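Entry:
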Amino acid sequence: MDTQVWDALVASMKNAYTAGLGEGAVPRPVIMPLVRGELVGLIRVRPTTVGQDALTGIAELSNIAAAADADEVVLTWETHDVATACGLPVVGPAPCLNMVHATKEGHVLHQFPYSEQLLSRSPEDGTSAEPQWLPALAPRPGGELVPPIQAAVSFSFTPLELDHPSPFGVTVLLMEDDGYSVRLTETFAL
């Protein structure tokens, strides 16, 4: 992946986390598939319930990448948020924005820990905070991924066997119907 594209994705996700924390919650996990270096779009996991539904919802992010025949993907998630949603132990720094860049050949885990500075707390608006970004950890080729993220990475490169003239288009529509937030770039818009 081009360094400029990677830097733009990191900046975009940090901005999303800053905005989300300001509204009282971190953004849900996201997948960003790329085809020949071009971003397909940004797909955010559907609303889930705690446990198996969250595990499944995160793993199913891979469907859009597989349907697009992506040659690389970037997944982002917050350590504590995914552990809590999936009923898993917290592994690694928390709070932390995690980004994994993956291809068929392997993946590199990037971690951006932060502390939260409380901005406000009220019964009407809840709690809002601002991330104070700490130094990023060194990128870890083959770094350990939590099970739903590992599944999403693995299945992103498993071809979908859909008997349909437009496997990508139908996958987008099915995922939107299931509640996933799908924002495609202009090149891949339906």
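The chain is about 35% helix and 30% strand.
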